[in-house]
Amino acid sequence: MHRALAVFVLLLAACGPIGVPERTFTFGSSASPSAAGTAAPAAWRRVADITTPRSEVAAAVFRGVVYVVGGFGGGNIAETYVADKWSAAPRYPITVDHAMAAGVDTTGTPGLYVFGGNVNGVSVARSFRLFGDQGWREIAPMPAPRSQAAAVAIGSRIYVVGGAQGDRLVSPTYVYDTASDRWTTAASIPTPRDHLAAAAIDGRVCAVGGRKLSLLQNLAVFECYDPAADAWRSMPDAPTARGGLGAATIGSRMFVAGGEQPLGTFKEVDIFDSATGKWTRGPDLPTSRHGLGVLSVGSTLYVMSGGPTPGSSQIAVCEALDVR
What we know:
This protein is mainly β. It has one helix at 35-38, and strands at residues 44-47, 58-62, 65-69, 78-82, 85-88, 100-104, 111-115, 118-119, 122-123, 127-130, 136-139, 150-154, 157-161, 164-165, 168-169, 173-177, 182-186, 197-201, 204-208, 222-226, 231-234, 243-250, 253-261, 264-265, 269-273, 278-281, 293-297, 300-304, 318-322. The protein has one domain (3-322): 6 Propeller (Neuraminidase), CATH 2.120.10.80. It is globular and about 40 Å long.
């Protein structure tokens, strides 16, 4: 986080730009509209507060359980959320923030995977897997250190996109094969950026938002990677330019929430539907924040912890949206 901007924490929090009209785009030739993709979501509700408030977290879902790892205020703490209750998980082997996480529960080696992040302000390549009573086990490190990126699992592979190493943006896409514990490098993301979010839609890795190493350079860029073609495709920009955001998919829709700018954090929730190719505006977050965990379990979207003001603030509030 750019601490030089901490002075802005004292300013009144301001919202980002108001949503824009719907933008139409055809997402792949196989996409087809569905009733689930057009129904309006319900209202946000408060769920159990996280035990350890933190921001700039690594968060993922594995076998229906939400995991939140590390972050400012969290260090090496890992916690799980299920049935509206938080519990302690085995301590992460290193104290880290801005790491990336993904859960794999198909072929390969199932487990919760956490990659890179910052240790004492320095990007690292070290990576770990958590599975049942085996605890954390170190796996092959990424090809190079990276933090402030996004990780997405498709099948037995995990794709790490965007991010930074120190004061330099990185563009190669790293692909981790959970079955062989090996890394390969795929096509570079067209728009290098840090503090971005990504989620899987229709077998593609879709990266949204982020920034150019500064809260003053937030982006609305939306790009998707097709593993079969090893190629990225430009998509219509998201309605809200922001970094420090999160994203998760429910059905054909990707929900984008959170983020920060110099004057405050974002309440806007933007939704992209791959079946219709349109961006729409969802119900505002009751508690705006950045550096958060945005995850989905079934048809429920969760927003976990994060920072209510720009910089290294933390909040315990967690909220959920039951999507119809």
